[in-house]
């Protein structure tokens, strides 16, 4: 499932991010690439140990964990520390697949994080740059996504994806991976749909409370069956 989650950052947070990232110490993006993706990758990134990446990454992590739609769709167990990238004119990231496991070095010993879901939080307004679409190829086809600044795309980390060359301006984003409590995309999607419908009923004045109680019970019992170790 691909999900567009609007306004993960407030306008104030977004302005703060843009100002700070304009003055950041951008490095060659291949610092975090594996062998295959290093061939495909031409962009810039903040070092994982850059204090700015750690500070802004912490704000992103808190924002997504407190966002009900994100939480319900991703059911996060562990978020890999968010990273920041920038594509200037002529830069791109051709088709690649993300590493299946990344090691969170905030933990000692480093914690292996299985990358079930990938996220891109767009930080540049779409009319400030040309190109730079995030293209995702899954079994239903190829989708090109370019979202307003502050919005996030959640997509399965199993999909091949690329970022098209930027031809005007610059595209800045925050990106990260997470391990979900529910490994299977299909199970996570059913839980999300059930939750969305329960929330819709809850908001209605005349929903039967006994039915709502049963549906909530079904949600939790499915989650109990599917949640991994
Ligand atoms: O910039 C993006 O939206 C995605 C970046 C990406 O795919 C990666 O770094 O693996
Ligand atoms: Fe990627």
Helix tally equals: 6
Task: Identify the CATH class of the largest domain.
Answer: Mainly Beta
Helical percentage? 25-40%
Number of domains: 2
User: Between the first and last Cα atoms, what is the distance in angstroms?
Assistant: 22 Å
CATH architecture of the largest domain: Sandwich
- Can you tell me the CATH superfamily of the largest domain? q2cbj1_9rhob like domain
Secondary structure tally: strands: 17
Main pleated-sheet profile? 8 strands, antiparallel
Mean pLDDT: 96
The parts where pLDDT drops under 50 for at least 5 residues are: none
What form results from the Cα inertia axes? Answer: globular
Rg, Å, rounded: 18 Å
What is the H/E string? EHEHEEHHEEEEEEEEEEEEEHH
Determine the structural class based on helices, strands and strand pairing: alpha+beta
Oligomer: single chain
β-strand amount: 25-35%
CATH fold description of the largest domain: Jelly Rolls
The bound ligands are: 2-oxoglutaric acid, fe (ii) ion
């Amino acid at each position: 499932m691909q999900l567009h989650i609007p306004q993960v950052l407030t306008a104030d947070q977004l302005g703060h991010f843009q100002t700070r990232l304009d003055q950041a110490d951008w490095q060659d993006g291949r610092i975090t690439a594996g062998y295959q993706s290093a061939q495909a990758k031409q962009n810039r990134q903040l070092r994982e140990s850059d204090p700015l990446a750690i500070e802004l990454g912490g704000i992103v992590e808190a924002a997504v964990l407190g966002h009900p739609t994100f939480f319900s769709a991703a059911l996060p167990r562990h978020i890999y520390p968010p990273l920041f990238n920038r594509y200037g004119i002529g830069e791109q990231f051709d088709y690649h697949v993300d590493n299946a496991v990344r090691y969170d070095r905030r933990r000692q010993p480093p914690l292996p994080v299985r990358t079930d879901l990938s996220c891109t939080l767009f930080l540049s307004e779409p009319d400030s740059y040309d190109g730079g679409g995030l293209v995702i190829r899954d079994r239903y086809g190829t989708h090109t996504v370019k979202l307003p600044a502050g919005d996030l795309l959640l997509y399965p980390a199993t999909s091949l994806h690329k970022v098209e060359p930027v031809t005007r301006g610059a595209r800045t984003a925050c990106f990260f991976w997470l391990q979900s409590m529910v490994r299977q995309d299909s199970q996570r999607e059913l839980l999300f749909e059930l939750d969305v419908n329960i929330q819709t009923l809850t908001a209605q004045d005349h929903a039967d409370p006994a039915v709502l109680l049963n549906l909530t019970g079904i949600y939790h019992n499915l989650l109990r069956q599917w949640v991994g170790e």
